[in-house]
Amino acid sequence: MDETNAPTVRITYCTQCRWMLRASWIAQELLTTFGTALGGVTLVPGTGGVFVVEVGGEVVWDRAVQRGFPEIPMLKQRVRDVAAPGMSLGHTDRAAAKASPSEPAPGSAPDGEPSV
Taking the alpha carbons of 88, 94, 96, 102 in that order, is the dihedral positive or negative? Predict the structure, then answer.
C-alpha cells in the first residue's frame, strides 16, 4: 500500500495512569506487524483513564467501552480489518479459527459428550 494513502493509528493513553509504556508497546507491535500498510502510529497523552485506539479515525478499541485493555492478537485483527482487510495475520488468524463456536466446550470429549 502507498504510504501516502495508508491509514494512521492514534493511541490516546492516560498519563495519570502511567500507560505510556503500554501504548508504546502496542505501537511497536502494530508497526512490526503492518509495516508500510500503516501511515504511522501517533501516541496522544490524555487523562482520566483514557485508552483509545483509532485507525483512520475509526475507534477499534476503547477501554471504557470494552472494560479493559486489548489482547494484542485481537487488536491486530481489528486494525487489520480497517487498515489492510486482505492481509493475513498467519498464526493469529489460525488461532481465532480454532476458537470458533464449532469447537467442543471445555470439559467435553471431541464427540460432544461430557468427559469423565
Answer: positive
